[in-house]
Design a protein that fits this description.
single chain; alpha/beta; N-utilizing Substance Protein B Homolog, Chain A; Alpha-Beta Plaits; Rossmann fold; 3 domains; nine-stranded mixed sheet
């Protein structure tokens, strides 16, 4: 069912703009029924709520939370249904999911109000029977929450973690083959917590103190973070920080871990730097700022529309040294051989480190794709080796914590390319970075802002 169809059945424009639960349901329908990406569905639906920031935040919270906890909600609901939830009309199933998410996660909303609002949604999209079903199931949940039987953790730890944390079982089992059970449980718990939003100050145009002042004046809670000099954690604002008066071109929405990457590579003014997987340009523009907009920075991506994003962000931030190019980083570009002082390989990956703020990613991941990624990542590193000067530095980073894409890929690279010295990542990152072998480091989601990253740094010796 398309959003337009949902809107028509909802009965008019006034109800769309007045009802954040209806907006949340529209987003959930798009993701679960039509397989849309949740961020795109949010961008399409939330404008229907006008400029009411409170309603927009409420609707987004409901939609993201329901999508994130989808399979856990289904597990619980099935104990109150005569047939599997997958056999219900899809919109009615989503109304039940949305209702249960509110009952479990929003204590400030009276449970009878949640039930009543869910029933009203069922009236818009169902019939008398489905209205009664929604009413009966949610009231049964309130009367008898103990009816739910969870998997036994001691007998089936993968099943228990999969259901309790709302993750695909295959993914939990994969992580259990890499990490101790306690570490897996800590990771799953952390990525289901709220991610702390952060921005990076564009030091070509502003100072952190100036930006914090503007954000506070706009009503935000803005705090500089000790991990990076440009990093600010931003909370409590009803609009995107980029729209705050006086901040256009002075900040970039970027997680703290992503900001650390540019500092680890530490380019200098006048150098030649390659960013081989650069779109949308967050790290490239940060590298340019650290270079004081002086030198040469080639930023590429294989997709032309994503290269356009690099150009747009560079222009918005006043960066002039970036040369964007459409290029497949797995291939060797003869024009770049032996020219680079620094190379950043921000490799395509499974995204397990940033799964916390991508509510639908866990349900989109495919084990076959995870199997294919290491070969892609290694081929990009092999190309990067051809571009580096002797004495140049290579940073491999991902936003995943999957060892198959991180430690094992670097292990293969080290065995194949012996002419590197692997470098300590720096003591300044140790409060947030878990150091492995020399040159390796991980940021776990619980350590910084809810996101996870892997870094490996090397210097070419010959």
């Amino acid at each position: 069912m398309l959003i337009g169809a949902v809107n028509r059945r909802a009965g008019g424009r006034r109800q769309e703009t007045d009802n954040p639960r209806l907006a949340a349901l529209q987003i959930i329908n798009e993701v679960i029924i039509n397989r849309a990406y949740v961020n795109l569905a949010v961008m399409k639906v939330l404008p229907n709520l006008g400029n009411d920031g409170q309603k927009r935040r409420f609707a987004a919270h409901l939609a993201y939370g329901t999508v994130r906890m989808w399979k856990r909600l289904d597990w619980q609901l099935n104990f109150y249904l005569r047939r599997d939830i997958g056999q219900l009309p899809p919109v009615i199933a989503n109304i039940l999911r949305l209702g249960l998410f509110q009952l479990l996660n929003m204590p400030s909303v009276p449970p009878p109000a949640v039930v009543d609002q869910s029933v009203e949604l069922a009236k818009k999209f169902g019939h008398r029977g489905t209205v009664g079903l929604v009413n009966g199931v949610l009231r049964s949940l309130l009367r008898n929450p103990a009816a739910v039987i969870w998997p036994k953790r001691d007998r089936d730890p993968a099943g228990w973690m999969s259901v309790r944390h709302a993750f695909p079982r295959w993914l939990v089992e994969r992580l259990l083959r890499q990490w101790p059970e306690q570490r897996v449980n800590e990771y799953l718990t952390a990525v289901n917590q709220s991610v702390r939003p952060a921005v990076r100050v564009n030091t070509l145009r502003a100072t952190r103190e100036e930006v914090i002042g503007c954000l506070i004046e706009a009503g935000a809670v803005a705090t500089g973070h000790p991990a990076v000099d440009e990093g600010i954690v931003v909370e409590g604002i009803e609009r995107w920080p980029e729209t705050v008066a006086g901040l256009a071109g002075k900040i970039y929405w970027q997680s703290l871990g992503a900001q650390i990457a540019a500092h680890i590579l530490s380019p200098r003014p006048g150098e030649v730097v390659l960013d081989l997987c650069a779109a949308p340009g967050g790290k490239a523009t940060h590298l340019a700022a650290l270079m004081n907009n002086c030198g040469r920075l080639i930023a590429c991506d294989r997709h032309p529309h994503r290269v356009s994003l690099i150009d747009e962000n560079a222009a918005a931030l006043g960066v002039t040294i970036i040369e964007s190019q459409v290029w497949d980083a797995t291939k060797v570009n003869p024009a770049w051989l032996g020219m680079a002082d620094r190379v950043l390989v921000d490799a395509p990956c499974s995204g397990l480190g940033v799964i916390g703020h991508r509510a639908d990613l866990r349900w989109r991941l495919d084990p076959s794709v995870l199997d294919e990624l290491p070969d892609v990542q290694l081929s990009i590193l092999a190309s990067a080796d051809r571009y580096l000067k002797t004495g140049g530095r290579l940073l491999y980073c991902t936003c995943t914590l999957n060892e198959e894409e991180n430690e094992r890929v670097i292990g293969h690279f080290r065995r194949r390319f012996r002419g590197y010295r692997w470098l300590d990542l720096g003591r300044q990152w140790r409060p947030w970075l878990e150091l492995g072998e020399t040159g390796f480091g991980k940021i776990w989601p619980s350590a910084l802002d809810g996101n996870g990253f892997f870094f490996a740094l090397a210097e070419k010796t010959g």
